[in-house]
Design goal:
The complex is a heterodimer of chains A (194) and B (464). Chain A has one domain: Aconitase, domain 4. In chain A, the strands form two sheets. Chain A has a four-stranded antiparallel beta sheet, with no helix packed on it. Chain A has a four-stranded parallel beta sheet with strand order 2-3-4-5. Chain A has eight helices and eight strands, in the order ββααβαβαβαβββααα. By secondary structure, chain A is α/β, with parallel strands linked by helices. In chain A, 31% of the residues lie in helices and 14% in strands. The longest helix of chain A is centred in the C-terminal third of the chain and has 11 residues. Chain B is of the alpha/beta class. Among the domains of chain B are: 142 residues, Aconitase, domain 3 (2-Layer Sandwich); 176 residues, Aconitase, domain 3 (2-Layer Sandwich), CATH 3.30.499.10. Helices cover 32% and strands 17% of the residues of chain B. In chain B, helix 2 packs across helix 3 and helix 6 runs parallel beside helix 8. The N and C termini of chain B lie far apart (58 Å). Classes of the chains: A alpha/beta (194), B alpha/beta (464).
Chain lengths: 194, 464
């Protein structure tokens, strides 16, 4: 179950390439076990490490200014591609709590919400302005503010993040409605119910 | 109501209720595989949750299992056998159906689900795999989810989803001979970008789509996710019914008739209104290939590599070791791969074999064919296709996802250039710094023979 989302104040890592896919966020070969843990080391592995798995000093995540950053600034269509939730587990374990991008891969966006990461959508010019700041950036989910910019998020996603809720628990409370649906549906589509 | 889209009909049919601004959608089928499904089953068990309808949940071994002849649970991928064994154990414990390594129905999820009649028109089907949209080709509401959502679907038979917008992409007229479903979808993504479909459920329609067989339709819908879409859909028709009739999990007898009667309502109304419409002249689609590291970076095989339009383009050209202005068909290759949920069905293998018949793969080229399922492999062997592949110099493998991606085991070599019938040309997708060019299986075959990127017609002109 995710932890409730608190306000964040942190330096933000600018990684503004477009179409950064989940293979880049966590390469397949870094998903070594049947576990949601142990993935932070593999985050952006192809870019982050040189041969012999030494840190690549040219990759922005390795820059001393950005150690311990909790905010990632990205380009359009961040998290596109594979559905692997490992991408979000890796980002979370590394320490990211907020991603800011103009748009996201749809499955990745939902995976963020499930795991307590706030995916903020902002226009690219605002992200570029944030990328130039030399001071920590503050994020306030309750008021939907990142620095001076407001952002949109669905009421339900906000509620889930702020309270650290588990969607399965919430839905299980509506089991009567689900059973009622099945009772009505079964005679109409009997082939569906194996 | 006479202005509803196919998507509206599917969505409304599955809507249990609204919850806090989201829709609670009933899920008819869940499919899993050993890479993202095993963890969902394990995590559920740890939380003390049960799979609510295990008879509606299926699992395949496709992503991590090796595709070498004589394979076992042991894999070249370090730690891979843990995925296989853990998933198997969890699947048995949960009481779900598993298509295991030694099962002659094993294969890639999106190949075996239709093969078994597990996906049907009008069903909702989810899988923790982004290419689940493939199965929308049957007029089903099928989409890819994360592992946590798969737990939700198994524990509650529902998912909470924000209703996507609707888009219709019409391919007007007919494609020229030699143009495939793969070229159609690459054309769309090339024109409108890798996130052009973001937020939309896309209905593919038009004469050129109707003309496709079911396998071509699956190829088209498969890459809806590379367009950023929620899913892709095609209206079911006689081709759909005849493909499904008699499949193991398809309804039989009177129930089949009852199902057909229901499925005949599954089309968009004449006055249906979509949030967005795109119309493409099918005659303008050419045999195509990607030049960059996003499926949107595509071009006709007959063209020159375009000038970069952005910093991302420049980075892609550098990564790919290419220069703008260069003829793409002069680029020599190191490897050829036919496989994946996009293009490894029987018709794909037949078209590639037709190119390879009587020809040899160019020297020094590593060429591999991995059928999409054990059934596809068997059918291909019954037709003698494997002999054509083997005689040409292709390796002939067991079914699975194989080198569509590099999981730490088998891969193409450092910076090798691979012409591939798969769906993703991302950096290092098929191996360390591999350079992947996505195209149709027949173009992979033609390129393997030529030793450089080459369309079928170019190969034929060369031989004439």
């Amino acid at each position: 179950m995710p932890k409730p989302f608190d306000n964040v104040s942190s330096f933000a890592v600018p990684l503004l390439r477009t179409n950064i896919d989940t293979d880049a966020i966590i390469p397949s070969r870094e998903m070594k076990r049947v576990s949601k843990k142990g993935l932070g080391e593999g985050l952006f592995a192809a870019w982050r490490y040189s041969e012999g798995r030494t840190e690549n000093p040219d990759f922005i995540l390795n820059h001393p200014d950005y150690k311990n950053a909790h905010i990632l600034l990205a380009g359009e269509n961040f998290g596109c591609g594979s559905s692997r939730e490992h991408a979000v587990w890796a980002l979370a374990e590394y320490g990211f709590r907020v991603i800011v991008a103009p748009s996201y891969g749809g499955i990745f966006y939902d995976n963020c919400i499930q795991n307590g990461i706030l995916p903020i959508r902002l226009p690219i010019n605002q992200i570029e302005t944030l990328a130039e700041l030399t001071t920590p950036i503050s994020v306030d989910l309750k008021h939907q503010l990142i620095e001076k910019y407001t952002f949109e998020i669905s009421k339900q996603h906000k509620h889930m993040l702020i309270n650290g809720l588990d969607a399965i628990d919430l839905t299980l409370q509506h089991m009567t409605k689900i059973q009622k649906f099945e009772t009505m549906d079964k005679p109409q589509r009997p082939w569906v119910y194996l | 109501m006479s202005n509803r889209t196919l998507f509206d009909k599917l969505w409304d049919r599955h809507k249990v209720c609204e919850l806090d601004g989201e829709d609670l959608i009933y899920i008819d089928r869940v499919f899993l595989h050993e890479r993202t499904g095993g963890i969902a089953l394990v995590s559920m068990a740890e939380a003390g949750r049960q799979v609510r309808n295990p008879q509606n949940v299926f699992c395949s071994m496709d992503h991590i299992v090796d595709t070498f002849i004589g394979r076992t649970d042991e894999t070249l991928m370090p730690g891979g056998s843990e995925f296989i064994r853990t998933t198997r154990k969890a699947a048995h414990k949960a009481g779900i159906t598993i298509f295991d390594i030694d099962d002659n129905h094993q294969g890639i999820v999106h190949v075996i689900s239709p093969e078994q009649g597990i996906v049907l028109p009008g069903l909702s089907l989810v899988c923790p795999d982004s290419h689940t949209c493939t199965q929308g080709a049957f007029g089903a509401l099928a989409w890819g989810i994360g592992s946590t959502q798969a737990e939700h679907a198994m524990a509650t038979s529902t998912l909470r989803v924000e209703r996507p917008l609707t888009m219709r992409v019409t391919f007007d007229g007919q494609c020229e001979t030699g143009v495939t479903a793969k070229d159609m979808i690459l054309h769309l993504i090339g024109e409108y970008g890798a996130s052009g479909g973001r937020g939309y459920a896309i209905e593919f329609s038009g004469a050129a789509v109707e003309a496709l067989d079911m396998e071509g339709r699956m190829t088209l819908c498969n890459m809806a996710v590379e367009f950023g879409a929620f899913t892709g859909l095609i209206t079911p028709d006689e081709k759909t019914y005849s493909y499904l009739k008699g499949r193991p999990y398809a309804p039989k007898g009177d129930m089949w008739k009852q199902a057909i009667a229901e499925w005949k309502n599954l089309s968009s109304d004449i006055n249906a209104s979509f949030n967005r419409e795109i119309i493409i002249n099918a005659a303008l689609v050419s045999p195509s290939i990607t030049w960059g590291t996003s499926p949107a970076q595509m071009m006709p095989i007959s063209a020159k590599i375009p000038d970069p339009q952005s910093e991302t383009d420049t980075k892609s050209l550098t990564y790919m070791g290419l220069k703008s202005g260069q003829n793409i068909n002069e680029v020599s290759i190191d490897a050829a791969f036919i496989g994946s949920c996009t293009n490894a069905r029987l018709s794909d293998l037949r078209r590639a074999a037709a190119v390879l018949k009587g020809r040899k793969v160019h020297s020094h080229i590593k060429a591999i064919c991995v059928p999409g399922s054990t059934q596809v492999k068997q059918q291909a062997e019954d037709e003698g296709l494997h002999e054509i592949f083997l005689a040409a110099g292709f390796a002939w493998r067991e079914a699975g996802c194989s080198m569509c991606f590099f999981a730490g085991g088998e891969s193409f070599g450092l910076r090798e250039r691979v012409v591939s019938s798969t769906n993703r040309n991302f950096e290092s997708r098929q191996g360390p710094q591999t350079r992947t060019h996505i195209t149709s299986p027949e173009t992979v075959a033609a390129s393997a023979v030529a030793g450089h990127i080459c369309s079928v017609s170019m190969l034929e002109a060369k031989n004439a």
